[in-house]
Amino acid sequence: MNGMRSSVRRRAAVGLGVMAISTLVLAGCAEGGGDEGGDSGSVEGETVRISGGITGIEAENMQKSFDSFTEETGIVVEYTGDKGFEGNIVTKVQGGDAPDIAIVPQPGLLRTLVGTGEVVEAPDGVVENVDANWSEDWKAYGTVDDVFYAAPMLANVKGYVWYSPADFEEWGVQVPQTWDQLLELTATIREKTGGPAWCAGFESEAASGWPGTDWIEDIVLRQSGPEVYDQWVAGDVKFTDPEIADAFDALDEILRNPDNVNAGFGDVRSINSTAFAAVAAPVATGACPLTHQASFLSANFLDVENAEGEVPTVAPDGDVYAFVLPGFTEGETTIEVAGEFVTAFSDDAATVQVLEYMSTPEWADERVSLGGNVSANLNADPSLASSQFLTEAMELLQDPNTTVRFDGSDLMPSTVGAGSFWKGMISWIDGEDTETVLSDIQAGYEN
User: Taking burial as the number of CB atoms within 10 A of a residue's CB, which of 6, 139, 232, 285 is the most buried?
Assistant: First the structure.
């Protein structure tokens, strides 16, 4: 939503890198610049400016993903990463300083931008590409009031449980296939180690609490099913309804049980003071047997050390790996995702060509091959991903048998999804009773 939260912001905070590409400035790009109407004249030498919240190494790779495109077309693409993108882009657009293209991390923010009247409908070539390469759900997330504006770009798979394959082998345990088996695994680890099985971190500056919302969203989707999840996101199922209370009760068995958390950090309340990305280090060293976090955590292990003081390997037989949070019924594959969407404030010929390219499998393959990311483009090649884990994540996204839903709080009104829901998770961890917390979260709809 139009808040601080996004998958991009989280990855930026992970410590992936270096300064954003500061030489690529956005100035002088009022209203996107260029000729209107998709001029069919020569585009060689034209510059298309893209803005988004992707920074650091990922920003560098975003820029590199256009190298071959520039060689073939002569169109120069300049990407500028802005850590404050969500808060700044609306102001820029309203002030007449819009980029040609924006990479929008939430459908709610897209709706806000469309409300300025400056967003251009997706051109026909983009519509054709998205229809050919993406599921209807992904297209729907880029649609506002039945008008399609924004093609999907990259994806982030939520709901992984990270663990040590070596420890599992030592303890004689298997990856659980159901929620009940997960609870049994939790108890077994506690018996084997004499300590908590789980660690968690909810601290994320102004966005603190979002890891807790991911937990609840994952459980609602698995426990009550996609129909209830959709009704909840739409506001038809209230936070105070039994289905949502049931999800909190299920999570209570893990995150508010002092026997089960907070491995490597302290007690239950330490969850709120632990940075969301800090869980990577204790998982790598074995101090924390299990943690729940999205696919982006794979990159965090590049910045920590295992018990031997080396960079941990992320592999089925490596130092760390992950399995998808199991459902309540065995055999169901259900995941929550987040992602970015590409929208434009210009319809000149060069911008249209860039938009069309970014909605193709060819661009997805180019970006995925540069490392650290996956795409839900159905015709992109998962084997190009930079690790076995990311290849498997991408295959999961492309599998027609996988039930996929977008991050619920990113779809809710910002007063809830980026407001009362985040705050409610903090209060809940601090010991507030569930009924009061759910009532307080629901009150966010009235603000």
Answer: 6
